[in-house]
Amino acid sequence: MQIGQVQKETGLTRKAIEYAILQGFITPKTMENGYRDFDEQEVDLLKKIKVLRKLGLSGTEIQDVLSGNSTLQKCAAKKDTQIQLEQEKSKILENLSENFDYQAASKSLENLSQKETILQKLLDAFPGVYGELFSIHFAPFLNFSIQTQAQKQAYKKVVAFLDEIPPFEVPDELSAEIKKGAALLGKEKLHEIQLQTQSSIQNIDSFLEENEDMMNHYLTFRQSKEYYNSPAFKIQQLFLKFSQNYGYYEVFLPALRTLSPGYCEYCKQMEAAEKKLFEKYPQAKQLKKDL
What we know:
The protein is mainly α and 291 residues long. The chain has 17 helices and two strands. Strands 1-2 form a two-stranded antiparallel sheet. Strand 1 and strand 2 form a beta hairpin.
């Protein structure tokens, strides 16, 4: 079945179907003429995804449900908790509007924070662009509340690290390049890149097989003078030095792995994918030294 027929069958837009492919929910075959061929199982899966999305489940939650790593009951319980949190916040706001007792409101919010997800807590602790940048990179791994003492301690380490680390300063000319890149990409594009990365890692064998020409071209470029003279390389080296000086790899990332089982699993998948990458492309080991 071609994509036009799938659109009629599911009521989804072409972009929504392509997004499902990008997330790795379905992998339709590509025919000799270049068109994708969707089978009945994939169409049925798209219908299920449509329902789950309309119910407010995130891409990660849908992935967990469809892969059997989570259940609809757990998602319903999580959604119910989120609704209860918003209702309780509304009550606190209503009481505050009547009595202007900020001390009582603060105490109520402190009690309520025990039920909030880690992401909500971090966005609250670090408002503005700083918190938004953090959420772009780590949001998929932090949509749950703290459950264990180990997670509680890890959360404190993460907050302390983010709060104490100095600003990441770059020369004006490189700062302009970063702003230009951020403007061109935007949050949606960055999220799309993140999903592509996760999908590639989870399906590393097929990714390497299907993108051999691209990988050879990329590795050649990464070892060229053009790349070493580029703003991208200079920014990367600045961040590497900054990270090494302030314990990003030694303090922050280990704490994040303890805090989030999902992020810990992602790191394991990344390490396994990296091993296969180095087996197929030994020259890629040099890229590891640059990071």
